[in-house]
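Why do we bother with a discrete structure alphabet at all? Because it lets us treat a fold like text: something you can write down, compare, and reason about line by line. To make this less abstract, here is a complete entry for LuxR family transcriptional regulator. Read it the way you would read a sentence in a foreign language you are learning: slowly, and without expecting to understand everything at once.
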Amino acid sequence: MSEIDAAVLNWSDLGVSELVPTGTVTLLLADVEGSTRLWETQPDAMTPAFANLDRVLAEVVPIHGGVRPIEQGEGDSFVVAFGRASDAVACALDLQRAALAPIRLRIGLHTGEVQLRDESNYIGPTINRTARIRDLAHGGQTVLSGTTADLVLDHVPPDGWLAELGSHPVRDLPRPERIVQLCHPDTRNEFPPLRTAKAARSHNLPAQLTTFVGRVGQIDEVRALLRESRLVTLTGAGGAGKTRLAIETAGELAGEFDGGVWWIDLAPVADPAVVPVTIARTMGLPDQTGRSPMDTVLRFISDQKVLLLLDNCEHLLDVCGETITTLLNGCPQLTILGTSRETVSVAGEVTWRVPSLSLNGEAVSLFVDRARQARPTFRAAGEDAELVSDICRRLDGMPLAIELAAARVRALSLRQISDSLNDRFRLLTGGARNVLRRQQTLRASVNWSHALLTDAERTLFRRLGVFMGGFDLEAAQAVTAITEAEQFQILDQLTLLVDKSLVIADDESGVMRFRLLETMRQYTLEKLSESGEADEIRDRHRDHYVAAAATREANNSLVEWAESEIDNLRAAHTWSVEKADFEIALSFVSSLQRLWVHRARFLEGIGGFDRVFADMRYRDSDVATRVWVRAVADMSVLAAWITAPASLARAEDALGTARDLGDQDLVIWALTACGGLSYYSPEAARRYLTEAAELARAVGNQPMLCHVRGYQAFAANVAGEPLTSRLAAEEGGDIADMIGDRFMSRFCRLWQGFALMAEGNISKACDVLTSLLAETQAENERMLTLIGSVGLSNAFAFGGNVSAAAEMLQSARQLTAIMGGFHEDAIFNGSALVAVFADDCIAAKEAAEASMECAVSERAMYVRSSLAMPEALVGTGDIVSARRWVDENLTFVPGWFRCHALVTRAYIAIAQGELEQADDDAHESLAIACEIRAYLQVPDALDCLGRLAVVAGNHLLAARLFGAAAAARERIGIVRIPALTHGHVEVVDATLQALGQNEFDTAWTAGAALSTQDAIAYAQRGRGERKRPASGWESLTPTERNVVELVAEGLGNKDIAERLFISPRTVQTHLTHVYAKLNLESRIQLVQEASRHV
């Protein structure tokens, strides 16, 4: 072998085939990073560089017993085979340490059974997998498969170490591969992420900042179980690594669940009733009227292929069992992976106990990896390696305990760590028999860490257990620092706890926040209970968050802070209720009103009030009257936002009490609450809200007036009164802008956009709603975004841009899906309108039916008022049902909705041959439109009257009406509904034929020259005398009112006659009637009277 040792063993050499490693072989595959670019940019250097590479290979490969097949490999790549994995690793290290610049090698190592293509070349899965592993590496990087890494774990070259890079998908291969990097002080060890294809993020799994060590076979086992069973629970002690194993497994399976992978952390949840809420919130699903959080989750998942990871179930076993059973029964493609210290014990559950790490391999690797994070220069060789093994063994291979021990290498030697375990750990492993051994093991580790703390650190540590979900420095100072000395020490002590890995610091949000691992928090709560100060600390915790919420409510900085502190806020409220501090509990929930509204947490806010009112002890409590009134009002306002069931009687009792107290601000808010609960009873809502606005104006309460005017804008929209709605919205918005209430500013602009649409200003409505949506989306105000999207879709549909309307609705539909189906009735309502304008009346009918099915009872009439069902029915040929629908609507619809219904019935009546009914409906629609300034339907009404004029043979009138309608339609920016206006072109053409081109053009032009108001007046001539009083302003006909308005504008009789297509004598006759009805004698008096009405 001496001659062979002197040179590289090339398989093409005579006799070398006899030395070919067979059976299980370790292959080294390498290539040159960026060789093509190097040849282009440094051609002169590359020839000697490759010669140098060949020379290095000739020297290094035989030293380590490698065999290199010259004919295997393409371009700049090469293959070397080894009988022992450790030889391959040593060879790779020597290659990377060699002076090869400008060449940098990418090296991959894998061990497996090989197949020979002939006597001198390998083929098959092993060499293919090795090549793919090499492709993951960067220049200068050596990566090993998990198989090879396990073989060389105890045989790494001196001073070298292995770094876990996790499991990664490998191109063209069916399963991910665990990848390990070979590191050494003489080589580069920091590289970008491996060169893997980036899969789309389809999960909310938390990013892991540390490497995942070991457990590859366990991941495979759990993954196999999940493919066979829909419910798998990982059990084991706290700190056994259940969560990390579950997250790693879920991450590898993410690509198999196109509906997503959702991690639900139940650790902060103390109240079983909050479990469904937590799941819904984690999935981004808000509260929904008339539907429990569980129903919302079921509807969202439905038949999607979803993996749900329920983490930390042990303290909520009963509710978790019920929740899991409900979800699996209702969602056929759902798979659940749980973690718990105990089995959940439900039918179909497969339990898998998470074992400790293997002591000779995984546990030691974990310790070394975490120790290097704490002290980068850490090495474990010789006696130190034995100490590490001993520490891991005596910690029973528990990951949490190992990580805590490893973190101590910053301040302690391995011998000191081992000695500390001698003093504490052995005693705790011999604890009571009714405590599980694995719990004793975890307690040993935590007790040991606790014993290393100073008295001051221990005091702070146990007090921090009261926090839920994290805290900031200000909260830590307020809650845990009782004495003045503790106030000064808190920052230093907290920093020490962070350094000792007992508290985790996180500054991702830009503000440093701290948290305890749940296992640690449970431990601190035990210590807090033993200390006798638990009640005091909980009181301080509650008092801090109550005060902080009140302060932030006053300075408008509540919402974002409250969202980040939601777990602490819930805990503070729960403690208040447990102690029967009902006045504090109610005030606290009221102070969070902006959070409940701005972030659509309506049901959570209502639940906070309900929990107090439903407590049997509340009846005997002594809650301040003002606190009760505000709580009832706040709860009623929340219910009004989502049309949730609420007691108007209780709200009215609160209103009466507020009046008795003489507290005008409370009266205003109680009136607002009553008005909100009466939204869908327009007269009642108008009465309450009008008084609220007048009182707010009288006492100068601008913030309250802003809210009331916003709610008036919505109430007027429900009542079909666009002018009233717009004026309220504009005033409310101006006040909101002035006082800096951005949410109410956007809320008011939302209804301003709807009002502008009904008034007939489509272009401006689109502008308002478009700018509004840009803001609400940026602020994550889902409720306003959803309603605004529907409004903008409606505006686009009326304008004939059905593609934009449909796209807007699709965006809204995606949002309502995220929100768990909230406001689905509005989505389907909008879909029906879009389909009608697209002349797809079958789809419109289906959408309209779906809208009615989704609508809660309180909203049903409102939804029906604006639904395009009759148009859809006409388009599908069901005229009778369309007529029945609109007839029923006209028994209750108000305002603009009545204009719409009347025009629709007019067209249906024409189709049914009821021309007089059609004439009456069209004229009444115009009269109402003129009265409430809602002009959106005016062009359709004018076109309808034009058709009736054609039937009556009055083609001149018809041409003027058609011209007026066309001009109004262009000004407003709307198109015709195909189903109702079918044949319009033919009717206009018939009019042209009857009149001739010149006369038709003259009449058309005259009609087109009319303003919308003038067109209405022209169409209404001769009508309106019926059912009017004999005198007073209300006795005037629409034409007489139009004459008066033109007089007020300063026009003479001749100009008025030209505007209205009547003679000056007729104008004078109208004026004579007006003077008599109003008991006036001069034009000046008429102008003065008109100024009070017009």
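What the structure line is telling us, in plain words: The two ends are 114 Å apart (CA to CA). DSSP finds 52 helices and 17 strands in the chain.
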